[in-house]
Each structure stands twice: as C-alpha cells, then as structure tokens.
User: Fold this.
Amino acid sequence: METLKELFEETLKDVYFAEKQIIKALPKMARKTKLPELKAAFEEHVEQTKGQVERLDQVFKLLGKKSSGKECPALLGLVEEAEEIMSEAKDPDVLNAGLIGAAQAVEHYEIARYGTLVAWARQLGMTEAVQLLEETLEEEKVTDQKLTQLALSGVNQEAEDEDGEEDAGAKSKAKPKTAAAKSSAKPAAKSSASKTPAKTKAASSSSGASRSGSASANSAKSPAKKK
Assistant:
C-alpha cells in the first residue's frame, strides 16, 4: 500500500469480512441465551448488520470496486472468545454476562474501525461514503449502549449473586468438619480423665492394705507382751 485510498480500501475489506462473520455468530449467541431481552437484542442486531453490509456494498461501488472481504484475525479472535464463553459458562446468569461482554468487544472493534473509515473517507473527499459509514457508526454506538444498559439492569448482579452462593456453600461445608474435629477431641480428654480416679482408687486401696497389715502386725505383737 502506498496511498491513503489503498489503505482505506484494505480496511474496508477487513470490515466487510467482519460483518459477514458477525451475521454468522449472532444467531448462535441468541440461541444460547435464555434471557428474552438479550435474545431480542442479538436478533435485532443480525438484521441491522445485514443493512450495514449493504452500505458497505455501496461504498465499494463508489470506489469502482467489487465487494470483497479479507480475513481479519482480530475479529476471528473475538468470535472465538465468544464461542469459548458459550461452551465453558455453566451457569445461565454467568453466561448472559459473558455474552454481553463478548458482544461489546465486537461492537468496540467495529466502532474503532468505522470511526477510522469515516475520517479517511472525509480526508479523501468521499462525501457520500462518509454519510454511509457514519450511519453505521451511529448504529454500532447505540447497540453498545443498549448492551451496557442491559448488563447494568441486573445481568451483572445476577452473575455476582451466583458467586456469593457458591462461597456460602463452601463455608457451610467447612464448618461441620471443624465441629466434628472438636467433638472427636473431647472424648479423648474425658477418657484420660476417667483413668485418673482408677489410679487414685488403687493407691488408696494399697495404702489401706498397708495400714491394715501394720495393724495386724501390731495386734499380733500385743499378746506376746502379755505373756
């Protein structure tokens, strides 16, 4: 690439590829979530993205080029991240929070790309292209705001509550073990204490025996004195 126009065209291909991938990914995300509001947001954005692809087609025509995409590693990485969340998140509330985060990562990528394309198109004097790209840019910003509102309306809170319940469950399981340890220690102390009286009794009996023995010996001697 040697000119700004060539850079503009190559970036346009990146975005075209990205939009096509998003059209494939969003229905999967919509099917995965059980939250009606989130499902509706994904389904709505699928149709919106199709309109964005049509605008890109118009920009390609303005350039006198055929619409085509170029593989974009950045977008593929974001899609892969969303797929990992869908496969690894077991709790539905955590899944919803993860899906919103993944969708917003894609939106932020698109906002950055379309913002750059608008600036370049304006610099190149492509007034009609600026209008088309700005329309899409505004749609992406609105979608990002909707996802933020959805996350803050309770989705993130529900996901956090699940963490709290797990922590409480772990603590409740740990407490019985401590109690058991204490209860097992108490009988040992009692048993050692119970042995002590036995020794005392034995000592008392032996002491008593020695005294009785001496008494017997004294009583045996007294008759001898009388004789």
About this structure: Residues 4-168 form a domain with the Ferritin fold (CATH 1.20.1260.10).
